[in-house]
Amino acid sequence: MEKIKMTTPLVEMDGDEMTRILWKVIKDELIIPFVDLKTEYYDLGLLEREKTKDQVTIDSANATKKYGVAVKCATITPNKQRVEEYNLSEMWKSPNGTIRAILHGTVFRAPILIDSIKPVVRNWKKPITIARHAYGDIYKATEYRVPTEGKAELVFTDKDGSETFRKTIYDFECPGVIQGSYNKDNSIRSFAHSCFKYALATSQDLWFSTKDTISKQYDQTFKLTFQEIFDAEYKTQFEEKGIKYFYTLIDDAVARVIRSEGGYIWACKNYDGDVMSDMVSTAFGSLAMMTSVLVSPDGNYEYEAAHGTVTQHYYRYLKGEETSTNPMATIYAWTGALRKRGEMDNLNDLCVFADKLEAACIETLNQGTMTKDLVGLVSPGFEAHAVNSTEFIKAIRTNLEKSL
Fold first, then answer.
1. What is the DSSP string of 231-264?
2. Do 105 and 134 contact (CB within 8 A), yes or no?
3. Are 152 and 289 contacting, i.e. CB atoms less than 8 angstroms apart?
4. CA of 129: how far to CAs of 54, 288, 303, 344, 363, in Å?
């Protein structure tokens, strides 16, 4: 068949370890034979980040702002052990964090559902998409281990040097610990815009939850900002689409989520989103079946898998051992990026190809061919057998070729 044409490149961000190995297999087997693939390539592998002093990560994010769509492989965020293992000059920051900061993006994570694996929560029938505000909160907090008695204070000094706020946090009568978190109005507003736009683009209701009854300044700022932006810019569009924006307290939201059938976007602050995305992915089946897309308020998209680099499988691969690593979320990163590129460039054939590749993945799994991690999750009454990663991707290709 004639390859499907592209007019504008995708930004391609290569990664690390086992996901890097699968990245090439996915391209060679499922994309390049069918698509005249155009990408602007950036190697975000840890060694290249070390070589460029992480400039390659910054360049890839700026390229995403230029072209509008990126697809990213999982990458290592180094800890002390990784610094020693890779002989790094420093403990480089998370590439995802750097890219989010440059794009002012919000992370949306949603599960891939198949017939043979039922959610742990029996009434969940549709995906629940977690929108995480990946900025500030405890991830950027200043902390101090209080060694003795003393007074901890929260102080703000304006740019002119005038002290405009001082309040006692606690008079310590014994050792303890303190933590100072922050956020910014422009980041919160970007988060809100991204959530509302993504809800409109996907025709899903949007839920947002904080604990403003307890956090009467920090969390309330999020609540009021969301409501202000919704009323001013999105309310009419939501009504025309027949979708709703709903705010509730985080504890009430948890109860409602557990009782619901799914099928909506749940927006959370940074820490809440970190925890709830893991809860949702596990309850739906597997983190390896969780998609992730970073959406900026000015309409840029970066697609990736929600999981990491699958280090243990990579070490086994290096020893020449066979691995059964699940490539589903990485394949869906490619289909998401190709579909969005097709939508932006009015290339319907590219959108249809992305749909057919996803359908081939689901068909393969529903036929019982899957990687080892999923076999143990299959519901009674379904038959499944485990294959290695390459065999699984080749089985998907067989089903894809039938549909083209």
1. IIIIHHHHHHHT--EEEEEHHHHHHHHHHS---E
2. yes
3. no
4. 31, 15, 14, 23, 23
Per-residue pLDDT tens for 16-42? Answer: 999 999 999 999 999 999 999 999 999
CB atoms near residue 139 (< 10 Å): 13
Which DSSP category does 289 fall into? G
CA distance 131 to 113: 18
Q: CA-CA distance, 317 to 155, in Å (whole number)?
A: 53
Per the CB < 8 A criterion, the answer to whether 102 and 58 are in contact is yes
CB atoms < 10 A from the CB of 89, how many?
A: 10
Residue-wise pLDDT for 68-127, tens only, equals: 999 999 999 999 999 999 999 999 999 998 998 899 889 999 999 998 998 999 899 999
Query: Whose CA is closest to 286, among 105, 67, 111?
Result: 111
* Cβ-Cβ contacts under 8 Å for 24 (sequence gap 6 or more): none
Q: Is 334 in contact with 342 (CB distance < 8 Å)? A: no
E-assigned strand segments in 218-375: 245-249, 264-268, 290-295, 301-305, 369-370
d(C-alpha 237, C-alpha 196), whole Å: 10
Place of tokens 């002390």: 80
Name residue 258's amino acid: I
Collapsed DSSP state (helix, strand, coil) of residue 316 = helix
